[in-house]
Design a protein that fits this description.
Blueprint lengths: L2 H5 L2 H13 L2 H8 L3 H15 L4 E4 L2 E4 L1 H21 L13 E6 L1 H18 L4 E6 L5 H6 L5 E5 L8 E8 L1 E6 L11 H6 L1 E5 L9 H8 L5 E6 L2 H10 L4 E4 L9 E4 L8 E7 L7 H13 L1
Parallel strand pairs: 3-4, 3-5, 8-9
Antiparallel strand pairs: 1-2, 5-12, 6-12, 7-10, 7-11
Helix pairs in contact: 2-3, 2-4, 2-5, 3-4, 6-11
Length: 298
């Protein structure tokens, strides 16, 4: 830190600001709610610190020296900035906001969390922008810590430790195929389920084993997974146009006119969807508003 700052008490700068505004020790003392002798003592300390008289006697009070005139505006700006920095955070007004929020989400989270919140977000905060980033689970904690993302949506299993979290909902799986699929007119038996041709979403790419396969293996059974895709959007199109079937999170099927939905013949564990954010933004009014808006839209 600059040695000049080390020698100065912040209260002396506040007194100097009042003196430069009033050009009068008595009025400055009244403005600061101090006694006149106290302000006179502080003026003496300021003169010593700056090596300049700062204020000289004049016919109508006191007149500033050239050094004092140089200090007036920078000092006022610095004190204004400091006042803003230490003042309590002002309430967030979404109608006047111009924030750019950055959210990490999968296509599933985009459909089930961000899409329902988007219309209300645009209406309540029209001057804001939303950037949706492809989620990379291994990078969530670092991105949040460095302020690269404001929020991330991730299932509770494998969610990074050390981040604030909020449970958005608990999800379950259903069996899905095209509308009119001959094998889905009713809930299939376990043997029929295993004989169907299945498609699976593999976020890491190319995987042919999922939670259903783990559950089947415990029963000594297997199913036929013939297609692996990275995104749910493509999977829905595949199901609507082929005889392939899939286990899908139920919230993706809110609009399932082209698809047939039945309960699976095997108990497949669901998952908890979390909203994640860093401690650094936990108390920020704008961030709090965004979190509440998304949560209330689910």
């Amino acid at each position: 830190m600059n040695n000049s700052l080390r020698r100065l008490d912040l209260n002396l700068l506040v007194t100097l600001d009042a003196l430069l505004a009033e050009h009068n020790v008595t009025r400055a003392a009244e403005r600061l709610h101090l006694s006149q002798p106290s302000v006179s003592v502080q003026l003496a300390k300021l003169r010593e610190a700056f090596g300049d008289p700062l204020l000289l006697p004049g016919p109508r009070g006191m007149r500033p020296t050239a050094r004092a005139d140089e200090l007036r505006e920078p000092l006022r700006q610095a004190l204004d900035a400091l006042e803003r920095a230490v003042s309590p955070a002002s309430p967030f007004d979404p109608g006047k906001a111009s924030h750019t929020w950055r959210v990490a989400a999968s296509d599933y989270s985009e459909s089930t969390l961000l899409l329902p919140a988007l219309t209300g977000l645009r209406s309540a905060a029209p001057g804001t922008r939303l950037a949706v980033l492809e989620i990379v689970p291994s990078r969530i904690a670092k991105q949040a810590e460095q302020g690269e993302i404001d929020l991330a949506f991730h299932i509770s299993a494998g969610a990074p430790a050390g981040l604030r979290r909020r449970l958005m909902f608990t999800e379950r799986y259903v069996l899905v195929g095209r509308a009119g699929h001959p094998c889905l007119e009713k809930r299939p038996t376990l043997a029929q389920f295993c004989k169907l041709d299945h498609v699976i979403v593999s976020p890491d790419g190319g995987g042919f084993h999922g939670i259903a396969d783990t559950a089947l293996a415990e029963l000594g059974l297997t199913r036929r997974v013939v297609l692996s895709v990275p995104h749910f959007l493509f999977l829905r199109s595949v199901l609507a146009s082929t005889d392939l079937v899939a286990l899908l999170p139920s919230r993706l099927l809110r609009d399932s006119g082209a698809l047939q939905v039945v309960e699976p013949p095997i108990d497949v564990p669901g998952f908890e969807m979390l909203m994640l954010w860093h401690e650094r933004s936990h108390r920020d009014p704008a961030h709090q508003w965004l979190r509440e808006h998304i949560a209330s839209s689910v």
